């Protein structure tokens, strides 16, 4: 690659009259290198068709370029109709005024160039949905102005550099759908708003300390374990939480369901135990989803989740009667879906002849009661065909307290 850069620089020196004169020479070298190492996959409308080296002003004619004072400040490579293949050249580091580098989904392979760490003005680095391999360069942690880092849907491996979450201006970190492993740092110091590491191979516990600014947190489909830290209930701005399909165990933080902004909670398919708690209710939340299914939660159901639009509590060890508040919420239409199947519930306060809204789905099959006919037909196929749990299971569960 160094040889290619030298050749391109020599070309610029030898034939200056045929090349653009109003673009910084190092920027022009970088653009020539990019065009040499990336390939258009669009047969009819290739991305590089506008990169005409005889054009007098690349800043106004090259697709994907934004310039300020003859320097490239933003570069967006490819697009929805312009997929690219090839590799990212190390000569990108010559674009020293660059603040944004975006690569659209395509078939770009190879590692992330270490030289990107030389782009000290970079605020946005977005390289999603390609086939990039190798580790995330630790050197990216030197980009002190970085606001957004999106490397999702690639084939990256290794661990998340611990210093990456110390960047002072980092707000969005998306590393989802790679093959990242290792553990996360105990403390995340960056003022993150959005953290998405789902669908990797990350192990170990959750960080004990997360930024209070966090609004979106997803670590689903990993190999993480341990208890949920009480620090989660201090995230007053959190609106979306997805820790599903891991190995988390122990009780849920007592005030988790009381967070004012939290409307989407996905904790399904873990090993969580204990009860729901009885924190203050915030009332109906349109569009809210809470999925606690396929855990080992137990005890009687509290009404703390009354008004959630889609509520999945199935496949746990809940006992006692379904709270009347839940049934009324379904009847009023605040709750459109309430799945309680595969528990040890003993009753539901649903009077005979009560008609539920047509859009409602209420399932209580395979519990320690005979479900009312009105709700049997609204169960999903995964609930199975047996509507009542065998009496022997209910007797043993009751005798040993679950």
UniProtKB/TrEMBL annotation:
GO molecular function terms noted in the UniProt entry: kinase activity
Protein origin, superkingdom: Eukaryota
Keyword vocabulary terms for this entry: Cell wall, Disulfide bond, Kinase, Leucine-rich repeat, Membrane, Plant defense, Receptor, Repeat, Secreted, Signal, Transferase
Domain named Leucine-rich repeat-containing N-terminal plant-type: residues: 24-68
Secretion signal span: 1-20
Gene Ontology BP term (one): defense response
InterPro entries: Leu-rich_rpt, LRR_dom_sf, LRR_N_plant-typ, RLP29
Similarity field: Belongs to the polygalacturonase-inhibiting protein family.
Protein name, as recorded: Probable inactive leucine-rich repeat receptor kinase XIAO
Organism of this sequence: Vigna radiata var. radiata (Mung bean)
